[in-house]
Amino acid sequence: GPHCAALSLAMSLVPRLCARVAAAAKFSTAAEAAPAASLSVATTTLSNGVKVVSKETGAPAATFGVAVSAGSRHESAMDGGASLLLKHMAFKGTTSRSDLALARSLEAEGLSANAVAGRELVYYSASGLPSSLEAGMAGVAETALSPALLDWQVKETKAESVAFELATQSTDPQTLLTEALHEAAFGDETPMGRTFYMDPKGISAEHLVAYRAGLYTAENMTVVGAGVPHDQLVSLSECFFGSVAKGTGSKPPPASYVGGAAAVKADAPLTHVALGFNGAAVGSADAATVAVLKELLSHAVTSPSAAAFNITYSDSGLVGLYGAADPAAAGALTEDFVAAVKAMTAVDDAAVGAAKLAVKTQTLVASQESATLAANLATGAAVTGVDAVSAASVKALASKLVKSPPAFASVGPRYGLPSYNTLTAMF
C-alpha cells in the first residue's frame, strides 16, 4: 500500500512498523513451524514477479539479500564492465542517504554488508542477527533500487576500487585460468565466453543508469533469506520490493557450449591448466549426476596440485579438472586429467556411493553457514536428488563427455602442453 511505497522511497526513515505488522501476526506460527521448515526451501512469488526464497537454519546468524540478473552475460559490447562497476557502487550512498549514513545505520544493527557480481548476477546482501532483518533488508533494498550513482562517485570508483580489482585479477593465475576456460568453452565472441573483468572506462553514470533500467526489474530479482522465517521475509519483500516495475522479460542469448582451446601468455613460473566439459545447468536433470562426477574426478587424479570443478549457470555448466605444474611437467598433468576423465566411464557402485555421501555432506555443511546458504539460494546451486544418482548414470554421462569437444585452457608457458588436436586424440 501507500505506507510501503513511502517506506521504499525514504528507507532512511524506516520505522519498525513494516516488520512489526508482519511479525506480530506471524511470529508465533513461524516459531512453531521452524523445525519442519528447516528441512526445505520455501519459495513465494510476489504479484509483480519478484521471487522470495528462504531456508531456516536454526543458527543464530542470518543473511538476507537480493540477487539481480544483471551480470556480465547481459552486457552488450558497449556495456563491458557495467556489472563489475555496479558491484563496486553498492552501498556507496543512495538517493536518500550518504554512504556514511547508510554504513552507520547498518553498523548500528551489527550488520555487515556485501556485494558480489559475476556472469549472471549482481548480488547484494547483509548478514547479522535475525532480529536485524528489517534494517538489513532496508539497506539492501535501498542500495539495489535507489543508488545515487553520482558522476564524481562513479569516476572515483572506476579510478580506485575498480582499477585495483582489475590490476589484482589480471595477475592472478586462478582468475586468468577461469576466464580462459569460459572463452574455450563458450567462444570469445559470446557474452558467456567474454571475460567478466572488462574495464568499464567508457561507462558514465548516465550509462550505468540506463543499463540498470533494463535489468533491475521485478522478474529479474530474487530476494533470499537464510536463517529467517519465510513469512516475515515475504512481508518485508512486499514492503521493499513489491512496487518494483515489471520489465520486458528479455533474456540474454542462451549459453551455447562449443569447446576449444584458449591460452593466456604469462611470464609465470608454473603452467596452469584446466580441462573442462559441458556440465549441467542449475536444476537440470543432470545436475546431481554432474555433482557426483565432480567428486569422483577429484579422487581420480594423482597430481597433488589438481582439483575438480563444477560451475553451474541458469542454462549451462562446466565440469572438469584444473591444476598447475612446472612447464616441463604440464603435459604429464594434462595426461593425468585425461586418464581421470576416461576412468569415469568405468566407475563402480562403491566409488559412486562414497561420492554421493561426500556431495550430501558438503551440501549439508554449506547450508549450516548462512552467507553460503543465501548465496546458494540466490543462484539455485544447492544440489538435490543425489540419492537417485547411480553408477550407470555417471558412466552414461562420462561416455557422452569423452565423445564431446573438451574446453582446454592454460595460463603461462605452453611448451610442455599438447596441441588441442593431440589432446582430443587422447580420448
Automatic annotation (TrEMBL):
Gene3D superfamilies: Metalloenzyme, LuxS/M16 peptidase-like. GO terms for cellular component: mitochondrion. Residues 203-345 form the Peptidase M16 C-terminal domain. Residues 51-190 form the Peptidase M16 N-terminal domain. This is Peptidase M16 N-terminal domain-containing protein. Keywords: Signal. InterPro entries: Metalloenz_LuxS/M16 (IPR011249), MPP/UQCRC_Complex (IPR050361), Pept_M16_N (IPR011765), Peptidase_M16_C (IPR007863).
